[in-house]
Design goal:
By secondary structure, this protein is of the alpha/beta class. The protein has a single domain, classed as Response regulator (Rossmann fold, 3-Layer(aba) Sandwich), CATH 3.40.50. It is 55% helix and 18% strand. It has a 5-stranded parallel beta sheet with strand order 2-1-3-4-5, with helices on both faces. Strand 4, helix 4 and strand 5 form a beta-alpha-beta unit. It starts with a strand and ends with a helix. The mean pLDDT is 91.
């Protein structure tokens, strides 16, 4: 089951997002109105996708994503905002590693497709990391075998 976290300081937005995603039985969705509380949760549990509002009191979505990038580099980050400007988009991508940038109000299909694409990308990244580690392990074993044959000769 894929784990999704949604963070927005507006309860009505959280409820609307939950309604948009309610038919997805393969997603375990947690919602947070307090970004600080969400950040604490991110320190103790792995999430596949984190969706956050950009403008929240206390910690912004960009700040939260920058911390998330350190805590869970493979987590897909989707930023929601009602105000779109070029600086925010650039910061979201370059500094916070956002996968998608979705403006409010969102289209349900766009949101669901973005989450699905993000999950697929995350799976590919994790799989590639596992395969790369296997290759390194096999190369090390091969090198050890070569060295043991060199010593025996």
């Amino acid at each position: 089951m894929d784990k999704i976290m949604i963070i927005d300081d507006e309860e009505s937005i959280l409820k609307s997002l939950q309604r948009s995603l309610r038919d997805r039985e393969d997603w375990d969705i947690e919602v947070y109105a307090d970004p600080e509380q969400a950040l604490r949760r991110l320190q103790t549990s792995i999430f596949d996708v984190v969706i956050s509002d950009c403008n929240m009191p206390g910690i912004t979505g960009l700040d939260l994503f920058q911390e998330l990038k350190e805590l869970q580099p493979d987590a897909v980050r989707i930023l929601l905002t009602g105000m779109v400007n070029v600086e925010t988009v650039i910061a979201a991508v370059n500094k916070a590693g956002a996968f998608r940038f979705i403006s409010k109000p969102w289209e349900d299909d766009e949101l669901i497709n973005s989450i699905e694409e993000g999950i697929a990308q995350r799976r590919m990244i994790v799989e590639n990391r596992i395969l790369a580690q296997r290759v390194r392990d096999q190369q090390r074993e091969l090198e050890e075998l070569k060295n043991s044959f060199s010593v025996q000769s």
